[in-house]
User: Fold these one by one.
Assistant:
Number 1:
Amino acid sequence: MLAPSAHLAVEGLTKRFGRHTAVDALTLAMNQGEFVCLVGPSGCGKTTALRMIAGLEKPSGGFVRSNGQDITALPPSERGMGMVFQSYALFPNMTAEENVAFALASRARTSRARAAELLELVDLASLARKRPHEMSGGQQQRVAIARALARAPRFLLLDEPLSALDPQIRARLRNELKLLQRRLGITTLMVTHDQAEALAIADRIAVMREGRLLQVGSPKEIYTAPADPFTGEFVGAMNLLPAIIESPQSVQILGRLHLPLFHGFDMGTRLVAAIRPEFIEIGAPTDNSAQATVAAREFQGAFVRLSLSLEGLDRLLLADIANVHPFADDGSAVAVRIPPEHVRLFRAA
Amino acid sequence: MRPRALKAELLAPLLYCAFLALFFAAPLSILAIRSLTDAQGALSLANYREYLQAPDLFQSLVNTVWLGVATVCLTLPLAFLFAYGLERTRIPGRGFFALVGAAPLLVPSLLPAMALVYLFGRQGLLTPHFGGGTIYGFAGLLVAETVATFPHALVILRTALSAADGRLYEQAHLLGAGRARTFLALTLPAARHGIISAAFVVFALTIADVGAPKVVGGNFDVLALDIYKQVLGQQNFDLGSVVAMFLLVPTLIAVLFERWAARRQAALKTSRATPYAPDANMTRDIATFFACAAVGIGIVGVLVICQLAALVRLWPYDLSLTFDHYRFGEFDGGGWDAVTDSVLLSAATALFGTALVFGGAYAAERMKPFRLLRGLYGVLALAPAAVPGLALGLAYALFFNDPANPLHFLYATFWVLLIANVVHYFTVPHLTSVTAVKALDPEYEAAAAISGRGIFSVFRAVAVPLSTGALAEIALYLFVNAMTTVSVVVFLYPPDFKLAAVAVLNMDDAGDAAPAAAMGMMILYVNLAARIGGSLVLHRLNKPRLHEAMLVEAAA
């Protein structure tokens, strides 16, 4: 089961709303100082899971443990957690300093100095007297972080903290967020629906779908070795191609390409072959290539993404090629080769 | 969540439900039981039988319905035109028109009726010019109720017309639809819920009004006046209760419909709608301007006539000016005390009512435990709008006058007036509060909970400061209504606590029409002062923040 040393752990965490199971037996362990992203499409239960960990929702089952101690029944304020909400939930009638001090009020005398210290920590000392509407989205986010840190929490919970921001500053702010987390060394769990954000920022990613945890791993593991077709498609772009087993060492895809692959599946099992667009090879026809027509081209800057139509494939095959590639006019015929070393096989659903 | 906070969270919804059960549901049940109790104290329909068999009482039922329908037919087109002028044209002076259109809210409903009497009554200024015929009866009631209900219809229709989506009109224009077609295909259908709900509200207000029938009703008897006569004149509480029950039904239907229409109206608003900006159209604007001006002159005329009548020595024979009618102490109405008592009661209603209603709405929307109880409160809080003031007043009289009631000590005190006013005007402030609370970020309480601060800290430090606008609006609404209402308090006021609106009624009844008008205008001036004072305070409260926000926007 779980390592006893896990800093923050959830075991079988479940939330049911009537007959609907929003979170289904979620089990996840985090180490000291780790930055974990809980990622999945909207409605997959990730925010509900976060709120149960924070103590804002009562779980229908399962446990939350902090350093091995069961904290499932503790009120939110006694779990040693700070939380940044999607909307930031800053109080618009209070200054940055007052917002932070609100979380300190039981120790009113020292709270001013402590609030100033926290704002200093997020580089906002100069804006202490400003109200939220006088700040940029990024500055508001830092006030929210300062307030979340006010009670010296052991864990920081972030609920889609970047989704309220413009795309341009999002990339910069996720970097700042990561740097701040490193500097503080605080164990952080962030919920996001943006897989690119998770890949960029997380030490480890936990992928959720329909209330269930599908895979946990480093961004590289998740990207290069997705545990199922859904994860593959959700994190980055992925081509999913129907495949047939020819022999224990060979798989046929698209009815004409034979891939020499060792696999553990029985004969006759229906498979899905997954390959990312950047691994598709376009070139001169060979005896193991398929004819395709370029249906559309998207210029992406560093590369060009081709949408290729192939006989026998009801969806378009995506292929990323260098932006100087000569074979890339619309309607032109190309030969597609699938390098077997980049193909992952899954049992078809 | 500390244990103390938790306990209070459990208590708040309970206390609120108990309050409405005790001061709303219980008195009304007593009213219903009383109407169903015969002379021997047994449950029966005897009172209803007696009522329906008495020819003159049945006639007033017919009269009431007829008056209600006629008032709807007259008020609605006028209010629609006026609302259209305010929301859909570029006529000049829209702010002024809006103020004038709302003015009848600031006076007791019998003031327009009194103005009619001054013009077309037995000693009317204009009566001789119209062949000597007087306006008492149906015609007078129709005009008086139209003026009195006009602002209520106006509020609803303005909301309905202001919700237009500009994109639809641009689209209609691009598709080549003419003005008439656009109006019939877009404007009217979008406003139809508002129109229907305004019709119900006007109907309900008209049939429940006691002031105008008293002043200008003549021999045209209506239900509301019957209750008044049965109870105050003949001490016949049984028949009074029956009539009150008859009044309740149409009001209930009106409220149910109004809620339904409001929900439909809200659903029509999509977040992507762009506000409608009227285009330049001279023909439309000139026509609408004169129509609005005519209505506005009518309303201002009513008020001016009342003020003049209050200031002349003997209307209409000696038109020299005097302040004699302001010596309220010389007339049987309660003197200047009636004004100060009314201000005291209205201020108390505003203060206590605002705190109570906003707290209740916050508890119902934001506290977690007792989902069922909070839902019940949401329903209970809507119910007072469905009960006419006269019915509630009678129910209170029956409930608190019973010596067996442990709350009997409240009977005929300031406190029962205060509670009756708060309960009677509960619904609109509740809905305003709910809207204000819903506008707050739903995560405030969660953010506070993680920070170790309870829900009451959020209420005190965040919810209340952020809702000052709504709170001021609610306080003003309660103040103005408590100043003008007759129906709620007429059966309840203690002998030593006179109220201005009741004094208007009583002085007019006693033939002291000029002091009655003077008192009525005092109510207008107090309400105007409250409105203006309220806006000034709000303006000052919001100013620095607004100013800063503008600076930031300018810098960006």
Number 2:
Amino acid sequence: MKGWIGTLVLCIGMGLATSWAQEPDPEEMDESRGRLSERVKALEERFDKLDRVEAIKKVEEYLCPDGEIYDAPPPGGRCPDSSIPEGRVTFRKIPFSRRESLGEMIGAALEEAEAKRVAVGGSARGILQQVLNSKESDALFAEGSVDLFFLSRPMTLSTFFVDLESIGGAGPDEMLGSRSRVNADAETLGVTEDVKVREAWLFFKLLEDRLRIVGGKIDLTNYFDRNAVANDETGQFLNTALVNNPLLRQPPNGPGLAVQYQTGGEIGISVGIQSPNDAAATLTEKIYGIVELDYHSHLLFAREGNFRLWGRVGRVSDELEKKTWGGGFSVDQQITARLTLFARAGIGRTEGEDQNAYAWSTGFQIPSPFKASTKDRAGVAFSRQVETAGSESIAEGYYHHVFADRVWVSLDLQWLISGRNGVTGEENENIFIPGMRTTVNF
Amino acid sequence: MLTKYIALVTVSIFILFSDFSTSWADEQKNMPLNLASYDPKTLVFVANRDSSDIAVINTRTDQIVRRIDLGKFTNPHMAMLTNDGKKILVSATGRDRFLIVDLATQAVERTVETGQAPEHFDITMDDRFAYVGNMEDSTVSIIDLKEGREVRRLKDFFEPHGFSVLPGNKKVYVSNFGAHEVRSVEISSQQVAKRLAIGDVHHAAIREPERYQSELKGIANPTPTMDGRFIYAADGDAGVVGIIDAETDRVVKTLRVGEAPWRAYASPDGRFMMVPNNGDETISVIDVKTQEVATTLQGGSGMTGVNFAQGGKKVYVISGKEGAEFVYDMGSFKKVNRIKFGTNLSLETGATTVDGQKIYVASSTDDSVYVIDSTTNQVKRIANVGRFPWGVTILGAASPNYCH
């Protein structure tokens, strides 16, 4: 029996030993090495592909009537059928050859987390204006304001916003008493060195962003009578008549509601209501109501244009028993790649007045002629308003220089051609108001 | 003594048998199962992305008859047979390669380097050239299939996603999923002949820039009519289908369809184009003759494919997210059935057999292919076809093959 077991072990051992003792086949080794190299190469290629980044870019293209597109104007500036191509913007996804490093990914994740918290920002402005050629003694006026913003997203598709503002200095209207008000920045709250809540509202986006609702203490001019080139006293014209239509007669910021609906095409409609003063109690009784129809167009010169038609009813803020109504339009239209025209006009009447008031303004904006200052812009405009209490004409020109992304400096010149001085009761004639505006955003 | 002798013989037999069994298994493994012995039109080829192989299914038995290994990390996206049925062409996305596989030997015959992440492609009718879209570097590789090499790489596309070679081998249309344009490439010169804009998103984008700058849904595929006279190109962001005259390369009409249209699928009788709209979960049926939307059907979510059956009388629309097929009667334009395959499934693409009776649908999440009998709507599951099956193709399919 022992011999039998011994034989069995010997046979198995011999079989195993034979297979172990076999020398490796060189061809097999080469093949194995080849397979390994191939796998290493494959792994290297895959590693190289990690963390690719893409971006969607807005680019300009030129479209011919048959649908053919070009990245630059076609030869001779004409399509093959001799028509003029339509210049327009489109979007394209462009891959970047650079790789996103782990550090960048962590940075992006932190940024995303940060976005979910309350964001705080602010803006400080200082405006110096010199009055020249007035009947009073010419003087230099200084005005400054500071805004502090708080922004958070309490739930999906909503934004909560608070703007605290403080203003110091009344600007030249302390002396000139113009109808139009030559420093719009000083007009937003009235002069106050206290900190006041300028706006505090909750904003919702619904129906795939077609319906937007904002409610709280609001500034209706953010939603009505907008204009691409004459709607911002911090970076465009400084005169209040060139920021909004004087006959909009919007009440001071107060409790209100604005609803904007985009049809999905080029037409939008907005409805707004607001208390005629800062007291919420008057919201249901003597409301200021406004409706606006917007049309976004590319019909003229194949370039972007915005047309807005509005109508409003309400009460005079400081004389609530008096009813007032008005209507008007605001248009901005790009004429060439560098020139945008604007126009505003309005008509209105207030109970107790014996004639309609009207106001109109027009002007243009161009980008900087200097290649090194691509974000700079300049504008020139004229405004006239005629009301029972008197009429006024002004002209303004500015050059807005973006010194750094968060620091802007503007040079401004206003010409108060004619108008009644609301302080002295005399006439303002050919008064020049050069000024400098500095804005620091943080 | 006898005992010792018996033991010695037993062990010898054991050792011999062990060697034999190993070599027999190896032989079985390496034995070429000659797919050329099949009529290629009776085979279904399924590209398995994660197992980097092709499963071959016999439509007569619904059995997997072969798995063709494509090499480590090749991650094939789409496979297609040459028109002569002799080669299988595969885009190996994972390795930036285009593979030419011989059907008779099931061996990768040629490996061609392409741009980054090749996915979809089409070939000329004479099996000479393949046009391959490289999604990550936005180039198009033109591959000479006869010589097995890349002859040109066209640049400056924007995610070249869909390809259609026109009958006559004069032109190939390429759609850009990362832009709103279709390009025609002249085959004789292998150059881009024309760039055509589809839709007009910039008006809406001016109002809602965030939406359009966070995600771009351009044109998935330029679908030719069955006669090759027109190209139908659906733009996802614009919600329109542009109709291109393939003779003049002009956009002759733009039709508004539902929200976020995916792409057009041509009916085999040439009468209709079906456009699933994944935004509002509808299907626009376009009459090719009048070039108008004939009707709009209610569809499902995440529609990724359309297969016609029974000569175009019935149509099966894949709802990838619902793991179901919606069945419509093309005579009455009525939904006649909703076939739910299972839960937590993700259906990808399908192919219709040559006789128009059966549809093979890849289900990536359960590594299966589902077979629908279009007469009875009975469903059979073929399990373990490979990991993450994606592109399904049948030579001479009764409903045009597609991928996504």
